[in-house]
Amino acid sequence: MQEATEESALINIREKVLHDKRLTKEDGITLINCNNILFLGNLARNIKNKKTTDYVYFNVNRHINLTNICISRCKFCAFSCNKDDSDAYTMTVDEAVKTALESPKNMTELHIVSGLHPDKPFDYYVSVVKALKKELPNIHIKAFTAVEIDYFSKISSLSTKEVIQILKDAGVSSLPGGGAEIFNTEVRGKVCPRKATTKEWLDVVRTAHKLGLKSNATMLYGHIETLEDRIDHLIKVRELQDETGGFQTFIPLPFHSDNTELSYIKKPTAVENLKMIAISRLMLDNFDHIKAYWIMIGPKVAQLSLDFGADDIDGTITEEKITHAAGAQTDKFIEKNELIKMIKEMGRVPVERDTLYNVVRLYE
Ligand code: SF4
Description:
Blueprint: H1 2-18, H2 25-32, H3 37-52, E1 55-59, E2 61-64, H4 93-101, E3 109-112, H5 122-135, E4 140-143, H6 146-156, H7 160-170, E5 172-175, H8 185-191, H9 198-210, E6 214-221, H10 227-244, E7 247-254, H11 270-283, E8 289-290, H12 294-297, H13 299-304, E9 312-315, H14 322-325, H15 336-345, E10 349-353, E11 359-362
Parallel strand pairs: 1-9, 1-10, 2-3, 3-4, 4-5, 5-6, 6-7, 7-8
Antiparallel strand pairs: 10-11
Iron/sulfur cluster (SF4) binds next to loops.
């Protein structure tokens, strides 16, 4: 009887999806409890094909993490440390520029996220952006999560709007999607009580979008949240997208627990990761792009996820530190040719993009 009810709920969801009708929270819960991943994959792929045909996007980028010293010390984070820890570091402005200049040929993007440093003033971050822009005027700077911007506002006594405007004037052209973690207030209070609240994260992003900066959105799953929390998270992101239209990509991020305070939790399986990609695609009907972040799910699952609704496989990255601190077994960078091969093997057309999804080159 229960099976028959579930089957009819899934048929109803399929009808809605095929007729471009929005899925409800209850639909999301049905999907997240469904173990028929081929059903989920087929449905999500259908939407992906409608939105971005057989294109799969990637870019040539570099990650820079200015400091790993962080006052927040979130329970799920293996990257951060205290000021007096032996592995603590903070780049000078010159070091950040030197790192950026070592980037791959044809790089179009610098992705900059860092810890919440207890002493560095907001001016330091502005100086870094200005110096990078001076040396690399044509590179898109995607920098500072909503959590960092909220923190800059608190340490500078400027409003978040003022902070964003100053960063924009200095050379920041979009925001990454990190720091969203999971929006459930109780869970957030347990795993990251010292960082921006859900409301603060959403307010910063709303303000950035209104000031003309695009951003991404993420969700960290597979720690102490419930399946319902994941669906609620997707719906909150969807609501903000309805309001501003400023999100470009959604990136579901599976939790890696090594070296964290939650190290007893096993990382999500490949099936769970594929499911989250598919469900993100199905619930987020107002997002053009769903990203399979190969660093966190591994290149093989990222490749498979192209059949589960993903249309973006991230970039070359060049030097990833955050997930590797938490035990990621993937490489810290990937060659562009490798990304192209992964996409072509799935029968898709690799599209090298810039940060704003303008086509740099098609590899047909
Ligand atoms: S996740 Fe970000 S805010 Fe939290 S401890 Fe790590 S670096 Fe700091």
